[in-house]
Amino acid sequence: MIIIPTIPHCGTRFLTEYLLPKAGYSEDDIWFRHVYPANIAEICDMAKKHKTIMPLRSPENCALSWKKRGLPASEMYSLYLAGLMLLHRFPQILVLPIDSDVRDAYLGVAMLRLGVEIETDWPIVKPHCNQVAELDADDMKYVEALNEFVGRWY
What we know:
By secondary structure, the chain is of the alpha/beta class. The protein contains seven helices and four strands, in the order βαβαβααβααα. The protein has a four-stranded parallel β-sheet with strand order 2-1-3-4, with helices on both faces.
């Protein structure tokens, strides 16, 4: 069993539908929940008992994804912080920054800890300047605040 606590639109489907099945995990082996407040206690309980991996996207990519869906940046910010608080509370949670230059190093650690072989055959996707320009001042306020916390990954 592998546990995946996720921030919505930060790589959930990438892990559950592509990467972990490619590593030999079946649908029955994967348990995931978004880090909504109602799920935090259950996530914490599961993270104490099982190997856990959390996908992350850069705050810019996450904000762009939320904006495309018409979702508020303030909610994205709150849930991103909830995910970061889980990482603080459970340092054993593996992190996979899926759109970062350091992705392969983190994937290597995850492979060792999970005991699987996974090849990175997908490109690192970063937002283009014209895409970031789609974020308004309110969105950027949240992105810049989150960037203070994600420096080791981005």
